[in-house]
């Protein structure tokens, strides 16, 4: 009989941000596939008897191509196993969760999806930056700074908009060109920006600056991935509302 695949969001790092459902399913897993974004403390929660498979991440050297991950998930389930595919953050937000499920559908393998705290929500909360606020932002947009074809061509004119917060995932490498494009399309050069590195983990670092200077700040402080960019007036609240690590 076929097993089942659970596609589970593990949150951005702090193990206490796992949902109860994620925690329960993890404890019942026969096989767990995870990648670089899943926090170490969460990996330590994987039951000892479960098979642990590190499947890396796109940019890493020890990576399993996405197609192979998709196939592996199906293969393990067909052996009758309870398979947990752990993803950093939420599986349906820049997590390729959809691609993995399409393969399972084709093979007729049952699955469930467990949402997780996405990096935007986790980083914003732990940095003290409300993504919306009645005085500053009525909408928030989640974007990727790294497109499938390797470019960072975003719909710039739509992004330069008052009362809107931008959250850019995978934007660290392209931060200079992203900032330049936003200014070019009319964003005020003084627009506040935050960079949250390893958000919600014990090593979290938060830097704030303006869209003009943020790439210098990133370089001077040697900010490393994973890092999230938050752009908008709401960033001005960070100093007042920060609490984590205090
Ligand atoms: N599915 C994930 C996102 C995967 S894309 C989610 O919902 O959060 C990977 C990008 O997410 C990273 O390049 C970074 O921009 C962001 N990210 C993930 N975890 C993060 C963390 N703990 N701190 C800061 N950014 C993070």
TrEMBL record:
Residues 4-213 form the Tetrapyrrole methylase domain. Keywords: Cobalamin biosynthesis, Lyase, Methyltransferase, Multifunctional enzyme, Oxidoreductase, Porphyrin biosynthesis, S-adenosyl-L-methionine, Transferase. GO terms for molecular function: lyase activity; oxidoreductase activity; uroporphyrin-III C-methyltransferase activity. It holds the Pfam family TP_methylase. The keyword ATP-binding does not apply. InterPro entries: 4pyrrol_Mease, 4pyrrol_Methylase_sf, 4pyrrole_Mease_sub1, 4pyrrole_Mease_sub2, CobA/CysG_C, Siro_Cobalamin_biosynth, Uropor_MeTrfase_CS. One of its GO terms (biological process) is cobalamin biosynthetic process. Coiled coil: none annotated. Its EC number is 2.1.1.107. The keyword S-adenosyl-L-methionine applies. It is an enzyme of class 2 (transferase). Pathway: Cofactor biosynthesis; adenosylcobalamin biosynthesis; precorrin-2 from uroporphyrinogen III: step 1/1; Porphyrin-containing compound metabolism; siroheme biosynthesis; precorrin-2 from uroporphyrinogen III: step 1/1. Belongs to the precorrin methyltransferase family. This is uroporphyrinogen-III C-methyltransferase.
């Amino acid at each position: 009989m076929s097993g089942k695949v659970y596609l589970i969001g593990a949150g951005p790092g702090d193990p206490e941000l796992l949902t109860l459902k994620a925690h329960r399913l993890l404890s019942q897993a026969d096989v767990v596939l995870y990648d670089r974004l899943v926090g170490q403390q969460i990996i330590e929660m994987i039951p000892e008897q479960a098979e642990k498979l590190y499947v890396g991440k796109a940019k890493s050297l020890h990576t399993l191509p996405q197609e192979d991950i998709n196939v592996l998930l199906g293969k393990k389930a067909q052996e009758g196993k309870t398979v947990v595919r752990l993803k950093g953050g939420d599986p349906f937000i820049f997590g390729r969760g959809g691609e993995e499920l399409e393969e399972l559908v084709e093979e007729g393998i049952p699955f469930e999806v467990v949402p997780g705290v996405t990096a935007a929500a986790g980083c914003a909360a732990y940095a003290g930056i409300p993504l919306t606020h009645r005085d500053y932002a009525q909408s928030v947009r989640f974007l990727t700074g790294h497109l499938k074809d390797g470019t960072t061509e975003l719909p710039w004119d739509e992004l330069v908009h008052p009362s809107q917060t931008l959250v850019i995932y995978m934007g660290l490498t392209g931060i200079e060109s992203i900032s330049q494009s936003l200014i070019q399309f009319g964003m005020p050069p003084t627009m506040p920006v935050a960079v949250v590195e390893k958000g919600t983990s014990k090593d979290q670092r938060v830097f704030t600056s303006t869209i003009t200077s943020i790439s210098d700040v990133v370089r001077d402080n040697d900010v490393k991935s994973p890092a999230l960019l938050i752009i908008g007036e709401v960033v001005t609240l960070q100093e007042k509302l920060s609490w984590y690590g205090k």
